[in-house]
Design a protein that fits this description.
Elements (H helix, E strand, L loop, with lengths): L15 H11 L4 E3 L2 H11 L8 E2 L2 H10 L14 E3 L8 E5 L5 E6 L2 E4 L2 H9 L7 H7 L4 E9 L14 H10 L5 E6 L5 H11 L4 E8 L9 H15 L5 E3 L2 E2 L7 H14 L3 E4 L14 H4 L10 E4 L4 E3 L4 E3 L11 E3 L2 H9 L11 H8 L9
Parallel strand pairs: 1-4, 8-9, 8-12, 9-10, 9-11, 12-13
Antiparallel strand pairs: 2-7, 3-7, 4-5, 5-7, 6-7, 14-15, 14-16
Bound molecules: zinc ion.
Zinc ion (ZN) binds next to loops.
């Protein structure tokens, strides 16, 4: 099992008496109301999912991540983890981070408040300034300044998917208990179709365990709802996977759709969970046509020191001549023989009330989706 990114699992979760004391002190602290998405980022930092980060990024981290895709100590890191603030907040203050006036989620020592360039942030992370890109649009709506500083978690954000929420401390114990020495991580924001299943099982053939880790949180309209993704995976795994070799747990964060940069970020997170390998498919974390189809695989060449091994997969299709799943390296037949797994196509079929063929999607998964009047995130 690889060491966490940076060598040590960060633990910034206040416990026992210390937590009680900080909760009491937090009552007198200035409050900073944050979104639920940012509360989950605080959870991710505190539980070591973002090791070695111990807080929201100060300016030096922010700038080297943006320009070098690395932290100031040269460790790979590609996505800025930032807290945007408007209004009154002073450097040197300790503030309580709350979500809509509830109990504080965390306290933060505000080391630094700094201005930044929104357009530079969007252009470097997303490779475009087109506001039709969901990440760019979000960046343009951020407050004017960023606050950097260490945090300490006092409470969990409200979690509708608690039974699927595991911390790296927990997954590392679990992998060890199962006797897994090599674990392959799979990132998803989709319901599973047979193309995904084939990629996962091809990888699993060579390793001890499979860690299926869907991103749960804010997504763009037209993406599948979190509940639908989890129920679909549960149905799939119950019927087609061995408990001894596959685990499902969620990663609470917002999809950024940052393509190549997000692929590296996703790999680092799975390394922290204890994965030795990470699956990178076609157009990983992409959206629309903003990134070349295999750019998210090529970027790994810049990071020989990542500490988790990427596994690159071509897209799979069903070939009627081969009578099985195949890809362009294994099947010699004409594309007319192929049934492909375009997520868009499956989505359209579901919307129009047509069952996707069994070559594309398991009947148990279709049954789950049929229970929803609308399995998609609305605009
Ligand atoms: Zn074929």
């Amino acid at each position: 099992m690889p060491l966490p990114h940076g060598g040590k699992l960060v633990d910034k979760v206040a416990k026992g008496e210390r937590r009680e004391r900080l909760l009491a002190e937090a009552k007198a602290m200035p409050k900073l109301c944050i979104s639920l998405e940012l509360a989950w980022e605080a959870f991710n930092i505190a539980n070591g999912i973002y090791s070695p980060l111990e807080g929201f990024m100060p300016q030096e981290d922010y700038l080297t991540v943006l320009h070098e895709k690395r932290l100031p100590n040269d460790l790979p890191w590609t996505i800025p983890i930032i807290l945007d603030v408007g209004g009154e907040l002073d450097e040197g203050e300790t503030v309580a981070l709350t979500v809509e006036g509830e109990e504080p989620i965390a306290i933060m020592q505000v080391e630094e408040i700094y201005r930044y360039d929104r357009e530079e942030l969007a252009e470097l992370v997303y490779g475009t300034l087109d506001v039709n890109h969901p990440g760019v649009r979000k960046t343009m709506e951020l407050e004017d300044k960023l606050a950097g500083g260490e945090i300490e978690l006092l409470n969990m954000p409200e979690d509708p998917h608690q039974r699927y929420t595991l911390t790296p401390l927990e997954t590392r114990v679990l992998f060890k208990e199962k006797g897994w020495k090599t674990v392959v991580g799979f990132q998803t924001r989709n319901i599973p179709h047979l193309g995904h299943e084939y990629v996962q099982k091809t990888a699993l053939t060579f390793f001890d365990g499979l860690f299926i880790n869907p991103v749960i949180g804010k997504k763009k309209p037209g993406d599948f709802k979190d509940e639908a993704i989890l129920e679909a995976y549960e149905a799939l795994m119950k019927n087609y996977y061995l408990k001894e070799h596959a685990i499902l747990a969620v990663f609470h964060t917002e999809m950024r759709y940052a393509g190549p940069r997000e692929a590296i970020f996703h790999a680092i997170i799975r390394k922290n969970f204890g994965c030795s390998h990470f699956i990178v498919g076609r157009d990983h974390a992409g959206v629309g046509n903003y990134y070349p189809p295999y750019a998210a695989q090529e970027i790994f060449e810049e990071f020989p020191d990542l500490g988790i091994t990427p596994l690159f997969f071509k897209s799979f299709f069903y070939c009627k001549k081969c009578s099985c799943m195949a890809n362009e390296k294994t099947c010699p037949h004409d594309t007319r023989e192929h049934i492909d797994f375009s997520g868009t196509k499956i989505r359209e079929m579901l919307k129009s009330g047509t069952d996707p063929p069994r070559e594309l999607i398991r009947p148990e998964v279709i049954e789950v989706l049929k229970r929803y009047s609308n399995p998609f995130v609305e605009g």
